[in-house]
Write a structure and sequence with these properties.
Helices cover about 55% and strands about 0% of the residues. The chain is an all-alpha fold.
Length: about 70
């Protein structure tokens, strides 16, 4: 999955939950997707050089957590 937009507060989607899915499950899935996209952009910024994947993921996780829990 290749993202097309940079992450900003304005790109956060509102999620409507239907059926058997709980809001918590949906939020976790959305959070993980946002982390993956942010990590991708971090890797892209440094030319996808190998060896920094965990650093990219952890930095993206902090970034997304700050958005969710402000």
């Amino acid at each position: 999955m290749e993202p097309t937009k940079p992450l900003t507060k304005n790109t956060r989607k509102k999620v409507t939950v239907t059926g058997n899915e709980s809001n918590g499950e949906h939020m976790q899935e959305n959070r993980n997707s946002r982390i993956a996209i942010a990590a991708y952009y971090k890797a892209q910024e440094r030319g996808f050089q190998p060896g920094h994947e965990l650093d990219d993921w952890l930095a993206a996780e902090v970034e997304v957590n700050n958005e969710y829990y402000q």
